[in-house]
Amino acid sequence: MEHLTCKRFTSISDPSWPVVYRLYEQSFPRCEQRSERDYAAALCDERLHAESVWDGDCFVGLVFWWLADEGYVYLEHLAVDPALRGRNYGARILHELCARSGRVWLEIDPPEDEISCRRRKFYERNGFVYNDYDYFHPSYQLPPHPHRLMVMSYPTALTPAEFASFRTFVHGLVDRYTTADPE
Predict the structure, then answer these.
(1) How many whole angstroms separate alpha carbon 76 and alpha carbon 67?
(2) Own/partner pairs for 140-147, CB < 8 Å, 24+ apart?
(3) Pairing mode, if any, of strands 48-55 and 58-67?
(4) Fold of 5-177
(5) Domain spans of the chain?
(6) What is the pTM of this model?
């Protein structure tokens, strides 16, 4: 099986940004989405790796991740084109990110319905473990709507100190790269 190709964005003026941003808008709740204006600022931060994912010439999806100073990767967004779901692309993207990074941490919705239960099982099948910490993610949009998420990590569980560092890192990114401004 060939490796997928990831193409990193450095600007929202990149010709393939609109396709990726459209998938982003379709795939995540509004409260978990940055505006394009906010991405214009965030893409200047070297820690952000906003990438389109390709299988040859075929656009597969997106993976947006941050490299934290402590050396772990915060996987903020992963989405596969709906027409290509069920073809193992999500697992391939995840495996390649974990192989590059070593330590990957992410958030998902609590397993309260069929989709969120399937999502948790997907990450567990791919080596992630659930971390039993009380966690609320701040909103990217107004009105503010912090929402409860669960934190998962690869390859091992987070210590209390690592979880505190993760929460501080994520909240700092939201504050820095989300204006939550209605203009």
Answers:
(1) 11
(2) 140/31, 140/32, 140/33, 140/34, 140/35, 140/38, 140/174, 140/178, 140/180, 141/30, 141/31, 141/33, 141/35, 141/178, 141/180, 142/180, 142/181, 142/182, 144/180, 145/31, 147/29, 147/31
(3) antiparallel
(4) Aminopeptidase (3.40.630)
(5) 5-177
(6) 0.93
Distance CA 105, CA 128 (A): 8
Q: What is the pLDDT along the chain (183 residues), one digit of tens a residue?
A: 578 999 999 999 999 999 999 999 999 988 889 999 999 999 999 999 999 999 999 999 999 999 999 999 999 999 999 999 999 999 999 999 999 999 999 999 999 999 999 999 999 999 999 999 999 988 787 777 788 999 999 999 999 999 999 999 999 987 788 875 444
d(CA 108, CA 120): 7
User: Token pair of 111, please?
Assistant: 């397993």
Instruction: Answer whether 138's CB lies under 8 Å from 148's CB.
Output: no
